């Protein structure tokens, strides 16, 4: 008679916490601490004002009030007035509030283009060193 709703958990990485390695979040995640490595999520990830993420991140939606550094693939990116995103990203839509910072390159298509960019850059650097 009454349908049961599937609980989607909330993961919270508290300030002062440091995680390293590969992580997958099944639902929404709030990051107030430091996370290093590969992260994936089927939901929304929020990097809070004291939060720091360094690595590769793949999620549906990302809100950054803290700091992200690395490679990012997401559907929607929101950088708040205190947020900084540094690195390479592939996203469908991107919003930056006044005061927010994006430092890096963006492609709209796919993260595979970022991998091509890395290999092309390595070839160029190799040619410069040998030539």
Structural write-up:
This protein has one domain (11-130). It is 15% helix and 56% strand. The chain has one helix at 111-130; strands spanning 10-13, 18-25, 28-31, 34-41, 44-47, 52-64, 67-79, 84-96, 101-107. The longest helix has 20 residues, at 111-130. The model has no long low-confidence stretch (mean pLDDT 85).
Q: Give the class from helix and strand content and strand pairing.
A: alpha/beta
Give the distance, in angstroms, between the N- and C-terminal Cα atoms: 74 Å
Into which percentage range does the β-strand content fall? over 45%
Describe the sheet with the most strands.
Answer: 9 strands, parallel
Which bin fits the share of residues in helices? 10-25%
> What is the number of domains?
1
Organism: Shewanella sediminis (strain HAW-EB3)
Protein name: Polymer-forming cytoskeletal protein
Family: Belongs to the bactofilin family.
Pfam families: Bactofilin (PF04519)
State the gist of this model.
With 131 residues, this protein is an alpha/beta fold. 15% of the residues lie in helices and 56% in strands. It has one domain.
Strands, helices and their partners?
Layout: E1 10-13, E2 18-25, E3 28-31, E4 34-41, E5 44-47, E6 52-64, E7 67-79, E8 84-96, E9 101-107, H1 111-130
Parallel strand pairs: 1-3, 2-4, 3-5, 4-6, 5-6, 6-7, 7-8, 8-9
């Amino acid at each position: 008679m009454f349908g049961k709703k599937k609980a989607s958990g909330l993961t919270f990485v508290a300030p002062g916490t440091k995680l390293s390695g590969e992580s997958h979040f099944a639902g929404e995640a709030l990051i107030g601490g430091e996370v290093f490595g590969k992260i994936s999520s089927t939901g929304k990830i929020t990097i809070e004002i004291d939060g720091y993420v360094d690595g590769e991140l793949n999620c549906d939606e990302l809100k950054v009030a803290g700091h992200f550094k690395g490679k990012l693939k997401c559907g929607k990116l929101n950088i708040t007035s205190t947020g900084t995103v540094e690195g390479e990203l592939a996203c469908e839509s991107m919003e930056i509030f006044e005061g927010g910072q994006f430092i890096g390159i963006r492609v709209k298509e796919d993260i595979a283009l970022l991998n091509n960019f890395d290999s092309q850059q390595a070839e160029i650097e190799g040619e410069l060193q040998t030539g």
